[in-house]
Records
---
Amino acid sequence: ISNGAWAHEGCLNRVPGQTCDVICDTGFQPNPSGASYATCGTDGTWTTADNKPVSCVSTRIICDAVDIRTLNGEKFSCTPVGVGSDIANTFLVTLTTSQHCDYSCKPGYETPSGGEANRLLCPTAPQATSRNGACQPDSCLAAEIHCDYTTEMCTNAEGSPFCECLPGFVRRSNGCIRKCGSTGLEPQISHGGWESNGCDNKVPGETCAVACDAGFQPDHLGASQATCQDDLTWTTPNNKQPTCISSSTVCDPFDTNTSGGENFVCTPSGVHVGNTITLSTTQSCTFDCKSGHQTAAGETVAISLSCPSGTQVTPEPGPCLANCGPGPTVEGGSWTANHGTLAGATATLTCDNGRFWVSGASTITCSQASGTWTAPGSCVDPCANVTCGGSGYCSNGVCRCDGSNSVYSVTGGVNDCAPGCPVAEEILRGVNIQCYNQAIYGGGLIQLAIGTDTHPETQYCTYECQE
């Protein structure tokens, strides 16, 4: 086939009984006067419908199909005969610039020039015209209704004649204009079509979005919309072909910011746009770990990115993780890393027993975003700002005294050791401990002083038993 070929889809084996369709090159289409398919016979030869020849002709020399019912004519005679062979069944006739059809007006109709004979021509694609104007009801002529018979026709509805747009046209302020969708040049989409909502007329300047069938979605490498131009052709962004592909063969978009990687190389390159990579099951990428990053397996270069299942993009042997290194140094204690030092790992702070307490966070996490540990706590000396009087001494932030019957007391204005009952908190197995009358509680020790003449109030504490 000159300027075309036979379709491969569903036509690979070409065995007897199989039918193959014509696929024309861009800018060409099957000749409406010829055959658009061929069938393999049992004798190993190909036959076409009515033995018509198979050919592709330029879309620029073929006019749009015309519904003869809009012409109000009859007795059609076309040259060559083949162009009118489908009139009886479909009411459509398709002409090239070298073809024409003669017809006469139906009874009760005549041309604006007053004659009944007429000829349908295709002087310049894509619009066929009637040489003498479409046949119109006599009542329209009597009412001097003058329509543009190339785009509209006179209709007599209930005795009120008016001009109505021909099929394939829509009325605008400047008259009836042809729809892009009626030219046959609209991009065809396998497993999909064009969104009908807000895109019914498909006139110049209108943009229509791709609408894929259930289980399919727009190919991110193709166009997701098309715009009708003034010449009634459709254009897509960057002239990409709108296509619908199976949803099960496309993984969810992958954000490269989460990968910890750089130097992305993808096949094809178009799958990587900005910070997003969208892969199908037949596409892949490689990348390297950024400085200070590595995979859990210790790899740093040529990490592969693929779409094995059609849902989740998977880096192999895993994403690049930030390495935060050893935990921060801390006076009076140390950090112990749990399960390594890569992003997501944690470290626990341990302070020197009996001297330092933890202040702030005792557990920190290695951050993937910053490559550092989260804000760490510190070890503080609880006795640094505590002064004990007399023979008392500070332990765990509280003044204490030696001896089983001695407690530190602040009663009577004297801060010193005094007779009393020291009680270790741990033996109570209690919670919500509250102490009164200047009884001292802290650092795991309750100190109850014996009452004196100068301070006779009995010191006591209350608490609840643990569950």
---
Amino acid sequence: TLLYTIKFELMDEKELAVTYIQENKIDLILQEKLNCLYKTKPNNVFGFLSHELQKFAVEPTIKMVSGYLTKSLHHNTSQVMIELSCENNNQTEVTENALIGCCNTENVVNLDDLKPINQSLCGIKVFNQDEVDDKLKSLEKSSDITLAVSLSVFKSKAQFQKKSVLHLLQECFNGSNTEVKRPIPIIPIVNGGKHGPGKNNVLTLAICPNELNFEYCTGLSLLEKIYCKVEDILKKKYPNNLPHVSPNGGLSFGCDKPELMIEIIKEAATELELTPGTDFHLIVDFSASDFHTEVIPGQGSAKKGQTQSTSRHRYDWIEGQVKPTEDLCDFIEGLVENDSIIAVIDPLHHEDTEGYQALTQKVGHKCLLFSRTPTANAGSILKLSNTVTDTISQLKNADMSSTILEAATFEEGETILADLAMASGCGFVMFGGLRGVRVKLYNEIMKVEQMSSTSPALSSWGFKEVAEEEGAEGENQ
């Protein structure tokens, strides 16, 4: 009886095994792959089988989102490092992490935000980025944590698919692995600004390459020489008030007028036997909203021989000297004519539409205009949005040739911004100065440039001009 029972149980187990194999088509799949193995005859037999059988595996799913506090690299606050754990091939593994920079020191991060995020994302397939990002946005948690989680999922997808983040982004933008585009880098050199020392309220003077076919491997060394020379000059001129590196990587020093920043760079260029406008270009980031006020149109007295301004917008780019839009436009026109300024960023408040139109008429034929807030007659400046999906959508809808992709003020070193710029064909990048973690972004482009085929993002500077009589916008190629 005992032997009969054992025999029956063995037969029953055999039938269950056959049923299990047939239900999962294991016999058919193995037969097909073994035939393929024999025809291919690879050197690495089990590597071949592993790769082929992995195609039938269940897609990896999100198991847990965890995070821990880290000290920020730039200011006395904490950031949250996000780690993503996934269920893959019946095992749980930590796949990727992300730490996102912020644009102000008031950002508050809370680890408790991860509890509802875990509840919402657990079990979702890693490859379903849209679903992940939709759920993250619906939770309305900290933007830093939301973006870091979204990015860690995207990076995990690239890892599981054995692709680089750049390759995966290229598929999102173009549907294929097309040629990589090299954006023009805008490097901040000296900083002033409303909150800096001195009366100069203009934020930053930056430089960029003169050539559109700029190669990072050779070209960044020239910009680095200018940066270092400016630093040496400032140390000699201000031994009792040494310049310090600002969060954006530029050199901060106290000065009372923006022209002094230009003079410092010109002096550095002269010592290096370089010429602005020939060997490199200048860019001014005014950040005019920082020194903008509004008045009742017609308020105040006009100077002798001048017509009373009808604009409600006033600016004091030199502390205490409040002037109307017309005066600031004239000042910018003088800089463009005399100092080889090829672009201005946030030159006016974004609501000063008449001012932007007037400024375009004055300098649009030889100077680019950019605004951080969507404004007529100005190119766009974009940053990472709340999620990877939103960021890609934002870039797809932008005019890439007249768009700057900008790093966070307090950048923490994530290199996806560089990959986004190369994959989207963005015309310009503003990652910051050639110091600290920001160098990782430039190095990412340099690495890709050396390892694959690349081409310049721009075929022309694309200066724009508004016809004064018709107000029609044209483009000068």
